[in-house]
Amino acid sequence: MEKRTKQRTCIECRKACQKGELIRIVRTPNGQVEYDPSGKANGRGAYLCSLACLEKALQTHKLDKALRMKVNEEDNKRIAQEVMSAVLD
User: Fold this and answer.
1) What is the value of pTM for the model shown?
2) Which of 4, 18, 24, 55 has minimal Cβ neighbours within 10 Å of its Cβ?
3) What dotted CATH number matches 7-88?
4) With the CA atoms of 69, 18, 83 and 64 taken in that order, what torsion angle do they form, in degrees rounded to the nearest 10?
5) What Rg value do the Cα atoms of the chain yield, rounded?
6) Burial class (CB in 10 A: 0-12, 13-18, 19+), 82
7) Which helix (H) or strand (E) holds 23?
8) What does the domain layout of the chain look like in residue ranges?
9) How many CB atoms lie within 10 A of CB 45?
């Protein structure tokens, strides 16, 4: 029997992709917001398909809704910077 590939949906454009292809942002159990390059961190996750979708999600507060918390400007900037440096490497 074939193993199923897990699919997730981008919170901004609603495009469904394989889990490993997406950018995951996680709200940890202690309330921190972090970029999760492994895709396995404990907590509530939100998936984005591209840097453009990340920027739009931060502007339109869709990340706040997906993580069920208010993400402050400092965290927004830090997350965007972490994702850009990881994607460009």
Assistant:
1) 0.91
2) 4
3) 3.30.1230.10
4) -10
5) 13
6) middle
7) strand 23-27
8) 7-88
9) 19
